[in-house]
Amino acid sequence: MSARLPEGVDAVLPRGARDLLPAAARRRRAVTEALLGVFDRWGYDPVVTPAIEYFAVFGRWLAERERQRCVRFIEAGSGELVTLRSDITPQIARLAGQQLRERLAAGEAVRLCYAADVVRLSEGTREQSERHQVGVELLGDDAPEADAELILLADEALRAAGVKGATLEVADVGIARGVFERLPGCDLEALHGLLARKDAGGVARMAAGLALDDEPRRWLGLLCELFGAPGILEHVPGDIRARWPWLAERLGRLEAALAVVQARAPELHARLVVDLGEVRGFDYYTGLRLRAWAPGSARPLVVGGRYAGGAGFAVELDALEASLDAAGETTAGRAGGVMIASQGREPQARALAVARAQALRAAGRRAWVQAGLSLEAAQAAAAEADELLYFGADERAEIWSQGQPGAWRRAEESGA
Questions:
Q1: Which residues contact 219 (CB under 8 A, 6 or more apart)?
Q2: Is the alpha carbon torsion for 260, 265, 266, 271 positive or negative?
Q3: Which residues pair with 303 in a beta bridge?
Q4: Which 3 state secondary structure label does DSSP give 276?
Q5: DSSP characters over 309-332
Q6: What secondary structure, in 3-state letters, does 353-387 show?
Q7: Beta bridge partners of 82
Q8: DSSP result, 259-319
Q9: d(CA 62, CA 90)
């Protein structure tokens, strides 16, 4: 019997939503467990935050554009404005303030990890409204070594999930912010867009229309140019470092973090890309900005950085899986186990199959029952199994094993 949708409901999902069939769902679980296993080895403890929060929790953290993407509703009884979870970090901040304050006040660095779904109103037809994330938050440690830890951890987590040779992009949004603070009034949103596109000509034209001193004018141009391997930091003019102590401090912190990465993981250091003109997340992040890219995904696999009170990153599972698909890593392998099938649907035939399944499960094996199938149909239905135990019309059990998918080999025949 086929499943039927309720009256008036068709098969179209809401914009930005999708289903995962068993193989994809199984791979997601395997990827999630691999990521959480890495985080556990690094000392990150799991937490679970609620799917709903008072909107005020997010209102304090998110920029206006992101606040508008929250799915909001009025809580019955209280009349308070509530929202579906759209970001994990504000919830971690709320949790830390309510329940971890003493540990942080004592000087402890608190490491937390999570696996959660977030919901945001999509801004385009191709953008997902529901995102699936596995991430970490590091609270109470604002040293450059903590920034380096996040870079190293992100790479190890991606490799554990099957992504090889990802490009990690690092930046310090405080550099661009410091420059903007020294500009006369201008269209900062337009400037953000020019810098995000590395439009040096557009930046130069905008700068020409502003009353700027030499250093801000030169640095605006450099924000488009200083993008590349970590050695790009050596191209920052010494006179600007000398004139702007705040810039020298920012650059020194970034250099210190990258030096830690180079000492611990030279191969990773060679894959890093430094972008001193990074402005995305300008309203959210305060220092380190971290993203990871890999072929097959138009979106970053990792997003994160340092914010007021902590630092962290989230692995975007949908983007990671797109990269795995592009690399040919399309499945997590068969689920395995034994399917017990019977040709007949009679109570006696079903009882035989159920008894075998119960015995196998009691022995710790995965086992399930299908009734009323031909041998050919049973073999097709057992695509995820290692073995097929088939009861024919004479109630004799045929045992079939599957090596490669679809390559069934009969192992033995016995009495019922």
A1: 179, 240, 247
A2: negative
A3: 291, 314
A4: coil
A5: TEEEEEEEHHHHHHHHHHTT----
A6: HHHHHHHHHHCCCCEEEEECCCHHHHHHHCCCCCE
A7: 54, 73
A8: HHHHHH-HHHHHHEEEETT--TTTTTEEEEEEEEE-TT-SS-SEEEEEETTEEEEEEEHHH
A9: 8
- Strand partners of residue 167: 293
> What whole-number distance in Å separates Cα of residue 351 and Cα of residue 374?
18
> Residue 41 is encoded by which pair of tokens?
């080895």
Residue type, 163: V
The one-letter amino acid code at 56 reads: A
Tell me the HSE value of 269 on the side-chain side, using a 13 A CA sphere: 17
β-sheet bridge partners, residue 290: 170, 304
- Predicted confidence at residue 197, as pLDDT, reads 83
- Rg over alpha carbons for the chain, rounded to the nearest Å, is 27
Q: What is the pTM of this model?
A: 0.88
Q: How far is CA 230 from the centre of its chain?
A: 25
| Mean pLDDT in residue range 139-144 | 97
Contact 375, 382 (CB under 8 A): no
Residue with tokens 């797109």: 322
Distances (CA, A) of 293 to 57, 132, 164, 169, 245: 30, 17, 11, 8, 32
The residue whose two tokens read 């250093």 is 215
Q: What angle do CA 395, 396, 398 make, to 5 degrees?
A: 125
pLDDT value at 40 more than 90: yes
**How many CB atoms within 10 Å of residue 324?**
22
Q: What is the phi/psi pair of residue 216, to 5°? A: -60, -35
Burial of 367-390, coded b for 16+ CB within 10 Å and e otherwise, reads: bbbbbebebeebbeebebbbbbbb
Pull the structure tokens for residue 286.
């305060």
Q: Which of 168, 170, 160 is nearest to 324 (CA)?
A: 160
Sheet of 367-371, strands arranged across = 367-371, 338-342, 387-391, 397-402, 408-414
Cα(407)–Cα(388) distance, integer angstroms: 12
How far is 166 from 74, CA to CA, in rounded Å?
42
Q: How far apart are CA 256 and CA 258, in angstroms?
A: 5
Q: Is the pLDDT of residue 415 over 50?
A: no
Give residue 319's Cα distance to chain centre: 7
**Per-residue pLDDT tens for 160-192?**
999 998 999 999 998 888 888 877 777 778 888
